[in-house]
Amino acid sequence: MRTDTPQTIYRKDYTAPSYLVDTVELGFDLDPARTIVANRMTMQRNPDSSRRDIELYGEDIELVTIRLNGKTLDEGAYAIEGSILRIPDAPDSVTLEIETICVPESNTTLSGLYVSNGNFYTQCEAEGFRRITYFPDRPDVMAKYMVMLRADKEKFPVLLSNGNLVEEGELPDGRHYAKWEDPFKKPSYLFALVAARLVCQEEQFPLADGRTALLQVWVEEGNLDKTDYAMQSLKHSIRWDEERWDLELDLDRFMIVAVGDFNMGAMENKGLNIFNTKFVLANPRVATDIDFQGIEAVVGHEYFHNWTGNRVTCRDWFQLSLKEGLTVFRDQEFSADMIGTDTGRAVTRIDQVRTLRQAQFPEDAGPMAHPVRPDSFVEINNFYTVTVYEKGAEVVRMYQTLLGREGFRKGMDLYFARHDGQAVTCDDFRMAMADANGRDLTQFERWYSQAGTPIVQAETRYDEAARTYELRLIQTCPATPGQPEKLPFHIPVAVGLLGKDGRDLPLVIDGQPKGSTAVLELTEADQTFVFSDVPEQPTPSILRDFSAPVILKHGYSDAELVHLFNHDSDPVNRWEAGQRLAMARLLKLASDIALKNPAADAPNASARTAVLEQMNLDEVFVQAMRAILVDESLDPAFREQALLLPTESMIADQMDVVDPLAIHMARQFVRADIGVRLRAELLAQYQANETPGEYSPDAASIGKRALKNLALSYLCAAPDAESLALAERQFDEATNMTDRAAALGALVHGRAPVAPDALQRFYDEFQSEALVVDKWFMMQATAPTTDVATVRELMKHPAFTLRNPNRARSLVAAFCTGNAVQFHAPDGSGYAFWAEQVIALDALNPQVASRLARAMDRWRRYSPALQEHMKKALQQVAGQGKLSNDVREVVSKALAN
Ligand code: B3K
Ligand code: ZN
Question: What 3-state class would DSSP assign to 78?
């Protein structure tokens, strides 16, 4: 916690490290109250640097001794300023020995070395290693590590670190030791240790080159019945990386450790991945289909980092997307390949598009907007964002779209050939792609340097006589903080043309046949593409497979959208047509409701309800939904996606002044009207998509459950007694958590009389399963009936604590970000609650606090009266004397003009 003015760090100020580290020997005497860390490192002056001083970072640690080439340095020989320890005029070759003390048990930040449920864990990315020892803690300093762990044997029987176990044994006083050696050079952010009472599931797994590797999944006792899926996902990941990219596991041993207190999803420490329990523990009783999918994706993600992140890492933190965007792309491809079918792939793609629209587009349009490769930051932990991750993955995907799968693979191979063992930049990646394919990707660099979501406006013209079809694409990009003007992007726009019969017309451009989908390269602000030999007026399917992270605008008629919804051969655009149909209706309804009561934040619910009573969804839309719902030739998973309405926040994004209550009422109305009008079809699908027998998280079963439970939620949106009885029966009889939680959600959100009782029974049954208790809190936090007072009551529940990030997120953050109607209560009580919680959390854990702080990002989009309350809350946080850099950066950017 700092009180001084936070410093902004700029990408342009990068300088090479003055010293490079060859080897690091770390000795830990682990004690929760007082851990002694001995660090012996050999260093050389960096020939690429002109500086002669050694620069080390340290935070929240007590320096005991420091020796340089065997001689203790007295206080005049070095200087500590803030978190930098500087040794001026050091010799070219140096051995530094540093002893420090830290207090893991009082480290609530969960960065550095900390204690969770009595066990020791570390988290070093981005800058946690400096909370363990003084070190040139920056990713371009890569060294070989040798680690000695010493701890009480009874309390901490398991001692783990990166690489290979080289020695272990007993020590006096009931202590024991383990010595680990990592054969690979690595940056300090990949260091990890675990000292704990744990058990593991393990097996020997054959690798492609004939070696075998020992795989382990470590968990607390009592959770061994929940490790199978993580282990299976790990094996699939290893195999997939071998088969798709020829990338092998380079260690003899690979470990995953699950911990209940963790700031994010998981961490890719070399050979010793540390995971949030949420992304390891699963069995059908406690985990939903989405949890299973999350485990597969995150286990894959962390494993894939071994090459994209660890073997080739980032030169500096501005390059974070080099590893994160690329690794998200890899985990997305992995998840898609695991399903294997074309629609399965498309469904994963639709999910990705939803995430972008739900979270990344708003970020790109708000006060925290930043390029995929940011130019500056105050606190790097604030830049582990959907922009760096998900938009970064879209940027990587665009290379593949532009270069083709083979061309992209050539680029990857060249990237590894050039940079294995190095710390590099996003430009290095782009150059590998360009050079491997003989392509000029200069303009493509703007995807890394310019923030904001580009808008592509499409205009079309069919010339019947000439049989030509013109597609004019105009691109613009809104201003973002610090970037008033944007230059045109290099945008791959995949296009198909549908004939009247719904089939793809063959495409011809400049006399060249292009198949049924052409990837147009939009590089200018305004560019026209001409298709020839077009026999009839087509319906354009633009941005197929969501070929670029842009907003496509085109004046589609309802008839054209229905045509695309019924026939587009590209499932993503087929889904998209349905979203457009739904969005138009939701927006119209929301604005009608909002208009009935211009003082949107003093809602007159009955006037608004009166509007709804006169409303009726048009038959065109209902019929379009019906057609998809009953189309047995379509995968249930796809039908579920196609019937899912845009979320409240996506609707909000489209409104000039956001009216949360009007949006909620509009969306509820559409759901209820669908529930009534398609009742028979929904009931039939509910029955047709049951998954009796043993639970399996395969894609087909997951798709069925998703469609069945969507049908249930529409039916219960009405909500009539019969539908609620159906939900109640499902709740009572379900044999897996997916169906159990879906039924409970339908009861709670449908305000069923039995809901309170069902919630209580659910809690009683699962109170010893922390991850299920999180679900229990979250379900209540996001129910539109839950107001601030109820959340405050829930916070008094014995199972609630702000100290556990999962728990804090499941109640406090879920309410602030997932319950718009109540959070934006007209009296500002939601915002006051937010300010209070951000301040309380900041004292414990700045990273979690800062995430919560972002809930207020888009405050300027609400009515003046709400803005007034929001500004007050933001100012209250900003006015705190003691505030972390993390939270200060977020709130000051929100308040800046
Ligand atoms: N690399 C880590 C994220 C670290 C976040 C530090 N605040 C997990 C991942 O992306 O795989
Ligand atoms: Zn990652």
Answer: coil
